[in-house]
Amino acid sequence: MEGGHRCAHTREGMAWAVAATCGMWCVVWCGVCANTRRCVESGANIVLSRLAIGDLATQYFADRNVFCAGRVEGADMERVSKATGARVQTTVNKLDPAVLGTCADFEEKQVRG
Predict the structure, then answer these.
(1) Residue 41: pLDDT above 70?
(2) What is the dihedral of CA 26, 31, 36, 38, to 10 degrees?
(3) How far apart are the C-alpha atoms of 39 and 27, rounded to whole Å?
């Protein structure tokens, strides 16, 4: 792939690469893979974000049995942090497993207000 952007994503022993003809897709996919991979590699199995979590990241997490939710209110993040001992992070770069919290049970419920 001379002169082209190459992105490799390994999943269950299969390598995936894209050529420069779909360079933007590759840039987006590589960014999503890198950030979500860091979360998964940290050992997290629940990921909450104040920002929206896109379809690619949601699928990536789902494929790895990780629950994710985006657009979580700041007050809710603080409550979860206090209840689980997790520390809210501003970046996933160099994500340390020591910042993860724990809980015995996790349940998602729709609350109507």
Answers:
(1) yes
(2) 120
(3) 19
pLDDT average, residue stretch 20-33: 56
Tokens of 83: 């209840």
Helix axes 23-42, 55-63, angle to 10 degrees: 40
C-alpha–C-alpha distance, residues 108 and 80, integer Å = 13
Give the contacts of 76 (CB within 8 A, at least 6 positions apart). 48
List C-alpha distances in Å: 31 to 26, 35, 39, 40, 68.
8, 6, 13, 14, 17
Whole-structure pTM value: 0.71
List, in order of start, the domains of the chain with CATH numbers. 9-99 (3.50.7.10)
Confirm if 34 and 8 have CB atoms less than 8 A apart.
no
